[in-house]
């Protein structure tokens, strides 16, 4: 005789127990919110070239214009009309932002530039983004050895040349024949 197994279907009334998961979420969510690092986004207005080459009427005394050229191995600080003011070579760590900032503080103290707020950053095509940002910080703000604090404990920073324009650096070999910063 053959025995047949009885095919009874057992109905299981199963409930989903999510108590342990909810306990984990109650602890985990506040912990993640407390330890999260919120990034601060700041906006810096830049003056970009328009691309038009309309000739300006010739002036007797052209205005002073400060330019910082970012090369792969140095900074060149120029005055558009008179030429090179200072060449700052890279140090062991890379670009010498402190030397650039210190020299621009000396330039800002000069009577011809003490009311000027604009500077043009000219960079080569291979310039890294981080280099550009650090150069902009060195050009915009006064870096001091001693930190001065206000009433709320915030660091007081002075401004050097906050109005920054950007453009492409002229080829280095043409600097000797053409005026620095001239559009090629």
Condensed summary:
The protein has three helices and six strands. It has 184 residues and is an alpha/beta fold.
**The level-1 CATH class of the domain at 64-174:** Alpha Beta
Looking across the biggest beta sheet, what order are the strands in?
A: 1-6-5-2-3-4
Got a strand count?
Answer: 6
How far is the first residue's CA from the last residue's CA? 104 Å
Biggest β-sheet strands, sense, barrel = 6 strands, mixed
Radius of gyration: 31 Å
Organism: Aliikangiella marina
Pfam families: ExbD (PF02472)
GO molecular function, one term: transmembrane transporter activity
Family: Belongs to the ExbD/TolR family.
What does this structure look like?
This protein is an alpha/beta fold and 184 residues long. The chain has a domain of 111 residues: Nucleotidyltransferase, domain 5 (2-Layer Sandwich). It contains 3 helices and 6 strands. The protein has a 6-stranded mixed beta sheet, covered by helices on one side. Helix 2 packs parallel to helix 3. The C terminus is likely disordered.
């Amino acid at each position: 005789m053959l025995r047949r197994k009885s095919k009874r279907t057992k109905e299981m009334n199963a409930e989903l127990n999510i108590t342990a998961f909810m306990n984990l979420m109650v602890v985990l969510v506040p912990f993640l919110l407390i330890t999260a690092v919120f990034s601060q986004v700041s906006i810096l207005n830049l003056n970009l070239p328009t691309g038009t080459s309309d000739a300006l009427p010739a002036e007797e005394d052209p205005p002073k214009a400060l330019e910082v050229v970012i090369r792969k191995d140095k900074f060149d600080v120029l005055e558009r009309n008179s030429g090179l003011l200072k060449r700052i070579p890279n140090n062991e760590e890379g670009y010498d932002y402190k030397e650039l900032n210190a020299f621009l503080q000396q330039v800002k103290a000069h009577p011809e530039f003490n009311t000027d707020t604009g500077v043009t950053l000219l960079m080569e095509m291979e310039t890294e983004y981080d280099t550009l940002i650090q150069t902009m910080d060195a050009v915009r703000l006064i870096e001091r050895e001693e930190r001065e604090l206000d009433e709320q404990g915030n660091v007081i920073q002075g401004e050097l040349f906050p109005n920054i324009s950007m453009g492409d650096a002229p080829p280095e070999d043409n600097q000797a024949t053409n005026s620095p910063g001239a559009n090629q």
